Amino acid sequence: MKHSTLDILIPLPKDVILAEGHIALRSLDTLFAVEAGRGAAEEIHRGFEWLRLPVRDVASQADAKICLELQADMGKEEWRLQVTMEKITIASGSSVGLRYAANALSQMAFYASQCGTENAYLDCGMVKDAPRFDYRGFMLDSVRHFQKPQTICKFLRLLAVNRINKFHWHLTDNQGWRLPSTLAAKVSGHGTAEDGCYSREDLKEIVKQASELGIQIIPEIDVPGHSKLLITAYPEYSCEHKPTYEFCIGNPKSLEFIKGLYDELMELFPESEEIHLGGDEAVTDGWEKCPLCQKAMKDKGLKTMRELESDFMSELCRHIASKGRRPRIWGSCNGQVYSPDIMLQAWLDIREPLRIAPHGNKVVYSVHTSLYLDYPANAFEPQENWMFALPEEGVYMTDPYVIWENKVKDTIIGPETCLWTEQVPEWRIFQKVMSRIAAYSEVAWTNPAQKDYHDFCIRKATLATAGWNDYIASN
Ligand SMILES: [Zn+2]
User: Fold this and answer.
1) Is pLDDT of 391 > 70?
2) What are 140-190's pLDDT values in tens digits?
3) Torsion sign over Cα 69, 70, 71, 77
4) How far apart are CA 284 and CA 287, in angstroms?
5) Which of 26, 186, 266, 408 is deepest in the core (most CB within 10 A)?
6) Domain 137-450 - what CATH class?
7) CA of 295 to the centre of ligand 1 (A)
8) Of residues 360 and 328, which shows the higher confidence score?
9) What's the maximum distance between 2 C-alpha atoms anywhere in the chain?
């Protein structure tokens, strides 16, 4: 069955009510937006200009064929778009929802204009939409391969079009340190993109852009493991002062050094409510042999190095919380137990949220076999022995609640897809993402009872044919 211009959308909206009649696309030549709708109006201008459809801003609602208004009783991301034979009216509770609706209108216009705008019409009716999950995340690794600040800004736009509202940014690891830092000056280079480091000005620009697009940044400094580059420059903070992957967790000086690094991070990201501390894949061998770590374990009455690691990370989390931010750690796959106020990110397997749930922690769902976009989408993409095949359908069929909705629905706050970049140079991140991000947007946004992979494929192919992918890739 042929889609109407109202139900061609990706992600698929909650409610579509078709009505009799249609309106000529070319007649939509005037636009009125409330102040909060300025960003949304720019989206409409950009989309309609791409289609060579001129739209003029007007000062009064009565003169406008496209109207953008705020509605106090609607949610921040909830939006409504009404098409009548006279005009289009868009409403939302905030500028973010208006922006989502504006992109939906552009998708409709692209679909209607496949053969040109001369005889293009939009069907009358109403779309009412709201997200399934308030948390819809994307993690990008900017360490294994660095991306220029302009690439990050373009990437944020792609996330916004796909209604992703959390950008988890992996900024430090064994191979690199991407932050301007006084405390870690030896690894910050001159703090420019040429050194593989974002400058303070770059980060200001990125933070501003994310905020305009309704995206929260969750910056990550990964400790106590994944820190080889930093420790090679500052070996005094490792066990036996050797360049290892892990910090010495028995040395109070390393704790103070790391707290200082997070203070710098929080200054660089003043709007970030959440801070990610990593906490994954540390090896205990060096700690076992270290007199300082052994002493700290005994002094604290702890029995294992994993307990000492939990204690170390918990202290850092308390530090983050004392500054009014929420701490997050990668899932406790080595049996660490964290206090319930620490958010955890499950990545290992579908049962991980269940294992964490008894402690009452909130969980972000990033299970690698469903949501790691570095895994190959097809047989032609580079792959490593730790990777699984992850075609688009595999992403599409993902449900963070798996089969345990009644057990985990108060635990899991939403999904987050991850792009690790060991195999992905800067110029290929859009290739990696474009093949599966639309599928992911329906995982995060659309009510699962309405999802249908066959119908999704038709909508995606139809919009691609209409030029939508070329348009969003050009932004
Ligand atoms: Zn040690």
Assistant:
1) yes
2) 999 999 999 999 999 999 999 999 999 999 999 999 999 999 999 999 976
3) positive
4) 5
5) 408
6) alpha beta
7) 9
8) 328
9) 79
Pairing label, strands 88-92, 79-83: antiparallel
Give the CATH superfamily of 15-130+466-474. Answer: Chitobiase/beta-hexosaminidase domain 2-like (3.30.379.10)
pLDDT band at residue 338 under the 50/70/90 scheme:
confident
Distance CA 344, CA 135 (A): 14
Give the Å distance between the CA of 286 and the centre of ligand 1: 7
Q: What is the pLDDT of residues 27-41, one digit of tens each?
A: 999 999 999 999 999
Same CATH fold assignment for domains 15-130+466-474 and 137-450: no
Q: How far is the CA of 234 from the centre of ligand 1 (A)?
A: 14
Q: How much distance in Å is there from the Cα of 341 to the middle of ligand 1? A: 27
pTM score of the predicted model:
0.97
Q: How confident is the model at residue 1 (pLDDT cuts 50, 70, 90)?
A: low
Q: Ligand 1 center to residue 225 CA distance, Å? A: 12
What one-character-per-residue DSSP string does 55-120 give?
-EE-S-GGG-SEEEEE-TTS-SS-EEEEE-SS-EEEEESSHHHHHHHHHHHHHHHHHHTTT-STT-
- Contact of 225 with 246, CB cutoff 8 Å: yes
pLDDT, tens digit, 9 for 90 and up, residues 200-220: 999 999 999 999 999 999 999
314 alpha carbon – ligand 1 mean position (Å) = 17
Q: How far is the CA of 294 from the centre of ligand 1 (A)?
A: 8
Contact 77, 165 (CB under 8 A): yes
335: left (phi over 0), alpha (psi -120 to 50) or beta: left
